[in-house]
Structures are given as structure tokens and as C-alpha cells.
Amino acid sequence: MSAFLSRLRQLDLFLEDLPSPAELDAEQSGLQARYDSLAALWKLPPARIVLTARRATGGVITYGPPHVIRVSSHMSREDRLQTLLHETAHAICFAQWGVAEGHSPRFWSLAKKLGVARKTAPETERLRRVREANARYAYRCPGCTAEWTRRTPFGRARLCASCERAGRPARLILVRRPKPVRRASRKR
Ligand SMILES: [Zn+2]
Ligand SMILES: [Zn+2]
User: Fold this and answer.
1) Percent of the chain residues topping a pLDDT of 90
2) pLDDT digits (tens, 9 = 90+) for 64-123
3) Helix residue spans in the chain (DSSP H)
4) Nearest to 69 by CA among 97, 96, 98, 38
5) Cα distances (Å, whole numbers) of residue 110 to 4, 48, 89, 114
6) Which residues contact 174 (CB under 8 A, 6 or more apart)?
7) What phi and psi, each to the nearest 5 degrees, are found at residue 140?
8) 30 contact partners, CB below 8 Å, separation of at least 6
9) Ligand 1 centroid vs 149 CA: distance in angstroms?
């Protein structure tokens, strides 16, 4: 891992651990003010901006009225702003062309006009942890069809305890393993 990447990781940890509720409040108000001024410029309906720890990265807009724009608090300040601008571009597209516009070419040209520089939500330490927590190995007993999920694989072959007690030992088979982690682009 390069020095640059390891610095980024440290920064993400820093972000995850440090901002106080008061700081997040101030951040949220700042994003709200930014939306409000863009809304005046583009004649958009009001939106409530919510900085949330429940999203691992990126943001989402729920169309109103009022719109609700949720922005992950696990990102850097610059990425929060980028995300707000991205979702604001959705609000503009929604006002002009309706709900089906999505990430169309004219969406991206609008987003660019607002200052959106990146097309995907950033990787965050939080996202990595969520992915890790969701990684599951699933085992099935071919005898009684019971299933188990584990975060880590069994180190050696296991027998199903209830089938063994019933006098017909059956070896558990691995039926699902976590997908390899890809640096895929993510919708936001
Ligand atoms: Zn069994
Ligand atoms: Zn989007």
C-alpha cells in the first residue's frame, strides 16, 4: 500500500471517530444553506438536508415536497459537498423532466455545471466495515437441510450435530462464500 493510500485510510478513521454532534450540526446547516441558495437560483422546491451516519457513503434524494436529501457523514467535507451538489442536480432534473431522468447525459452536464467533479461515491472506512460485516459463509447440511451462516469459514470439515445425534452423520457443505471485494463504482 502506498504512503498516499495509508494516509487516506487514517483520514477516514479520523472522520469516523471524531466529528461531534455539534460539528455535524454545523456541517448540516452549511449544506442546507448551500442547497437553499442553489434552490433560489434554480427555482427549486424546498429540501431538508440530513447529514446521516446511517449511510456508509454517498447520498440519496427522496422527492417531496419537501425533498429530503440524505448525505453520509462518513465522508470528507469536500465529498459531502460534492454529494449535496450531485443530489441537487437530481432535484433540478426532477423539476424539469420528472422522476425517470436518472443519471442521463443531461443529468451529468447539469451536475458538472454545479461543480460535481466525481461520478462515484467515495470509498470510506465505514463502507469497508459494512462490506466486511455483510460477508457471510453459508453452510448447509445435506441430511436435514439446515443452514448456518458464519462471518468466518470453518477451518475444517464439520458434521451436523443433530444428524450425528440421530445416528446419520452428515458433513456440512459450503453453499455460499463472500464475493471478492471489488473496487466497483457505486450508485449514489
Ligand atoms: Zn443435519
Ligand atoms: Zn445520483
Assistant:
1) 54
2) 989 999 999 999 999 999 999 999 999 999 999 998 999 999 999 999 999 999 888 888
3) 3-17, 21-42, 77-97, 105-114, 125-134, 161-165
4) 38
5) 32, 21, 6, 6
6) 137, 138, 139, 153
7) -125, 140
8) none
9) 14
Complete domains list, the chain, with CATH: 3-128 (3.30.2010), 135-176 (no CATH)
Supply 94's cell numbers. Answer: 426532477
Q: Using CA atoms, how far apart are residues 50 and 172, in angstroms rounded to an integer?
A: 46
Q: 137 CA distance to ligand 1 centroid (A)?
A: 17
Considering every ligand atom shown, identify the ligand nearest to the alpha carbon of residue 82 and give its number. 2
All three cell numbers of 187, joined, read 450508485
Q: How far is the CA of 47 from the centre of ligand 2 (A)?
A: 16
Contacts 24+ apart (CB under 8 A), 176-181: 176/136, 176/137, 176/138, 176/149, 177/137, 177/138, 177/153, 178/134, 178/135, 178/136, 178/137, 181/131
Residue with cell 451516519: 53
CA distance 74 to 188: 14
- Residues near 53 by beta carbon (within 8 Å), at least 6 away in sequence: 72, 73, 74
